[in-house]
Amino acid sequence: MNEPSRSLKQEVSQEIQVLNGDIDRHIREGTFRRSLSVVAGISGLLGGVEVTLQHYKGSYGQRIMYSPVILSALLFYAGILEGISPRAERRLLPLASIAMLADGVIGFGFHVRGIARKPGGWRIPVFNIVMGPPLFAPLLLGVGGYLGLIASLLRSEDEPPFEAITDRDISVMPVGRAIRIRAGRFQQSMCVATTISALLNGFESLYSHYKSGFSVRAQWIPIALTPPLIAAGVGSFYSPKIARTFLPVISGVAIAAGGVGFYYHVRGTLRRPGGMKLPFYNLVYGPPAFAPLLFAATGLMGLLASRLRR
Questions:
Q1: Residue 60: which of 71, 68, 139, 104 has the closest Cα?
Q2: Alpha-helix residue ranges (DSSP H) falling in the chain
Q3: What single DSSP character describes residue 272?
Q4: 3-state DSSP call for residue 232?
């Protein structure tokens, strides 16, 4: 009985090694467009659900508040379509991604203006940032747009390795940074994106959890992880060794922390009066259910960066 059992374990181990090798090869060669498109689409969906609830709380007082809801749905559709259909219209994903990024910048401007219009404005920054519109939330919504834009520049999983592409193929490809992305050589750019996302997520976690008085010790986890995640992103920009060693470890921890935070936020929603008997009301006025997953998305970006080439 031991021999078959040992043989089965060896087969499973070999299959896992082959799978990991395939994933690593696709990432290093830049042939993971469909996979990243789906990730970008899901990111857009989660961000869109969250912004829908938050803007509902604000009664959609301005028509511009509908724009991220519409664009996140468009990004989700474009990302999933690109992921499942090899014949999908490839211009839709980059257009939706660029629109999402632009809308995030515009939304950031409106949130800054919203804080300035509160009594005391920026003369009382701590109080008005905590009680006003979430300052960096629109920029975090742009994470899905960034991933979608990168995905649109990559090559599909069934395309040949970049080394096998001929000079004639290269002559019709985009030049500069775009061709480096197509070859899977954009580690430093992804490190910068990871650093910025970590900074924005850490700040959002800080004032959001400050608002609730840090009633649960686990609320300190994303705040404590933000400095080392930023340090890993900056260090990886300059050092390939840090990118191979420290960045994947801290990124994996960030993904786990996002999952833990999602659990606590869902639990907080269920513990509100009425629980799931009043699902919409408690989702709107309870802890933002999907916000921790944005922190997990930052970890995913760092993990992806650690597998890329420079």
A1: 68
A2: 2-29, 33-57, 67-84, 92-116, 125-131, 137-153, 167-171, 177-182, 187-211, 221-238, 240-244, 246-270, 279-285, 291-307
A3: S
A4: helix
Q: What are phi and psi of 178, to 5 degrees?
A: -60, -40
Residue 150 CB burial class (10 angstroms; 0-12, 13-18, ≥19): buried
* Residue whose C-alpha is closest to residue 144's, from 37, 287, 217, 252: 37
Give the residue extent of every domain in the chain.
Answer: 186-310
Q: pLDDT per position in the chain (310 positions), as tens?
A: 455 555 655 554 554 454 455 677 777 776 788 889 999 999 999 999 999 999 998 889 889 999 999 999 999 999 999 888 767 667 899 999 999 999 999 999 999 999 999 999 899 988 888 888 999 999 998 999 999 999 988 887 776 665 554 444 544 444 455 666 766 678 998 999 999 999 999 999 998 999 888 988 999 999 999 999 999 999 999 999 999 999 999 999 999 999 999 999 999 999 999 888 888 888 888 899 899 999 999 999 999 999 988 7
Nearest to 143, CA basis, from 188, 183, 201, 89: 201
Could you tell me the two tokens for 133?
A: 């519109």
Contact 51, 100 (CB under 8 A): no
Question: How much is the pTM?
Answer: 0.85
191 close to 236: Cβ distance less than 8 angstroms = yes
- 159 burial level (CB within 10 Å; 0-12, 13-18, 19+): middle
38/294 Cα distance (integer angstroms) = 16
What is the spatial distance between Cα 256 and Cα 238, in angstroms, rounded to a whole number? 26
SS (H, E, C) 170-186: HHCCCCCHHHHHHCCCC
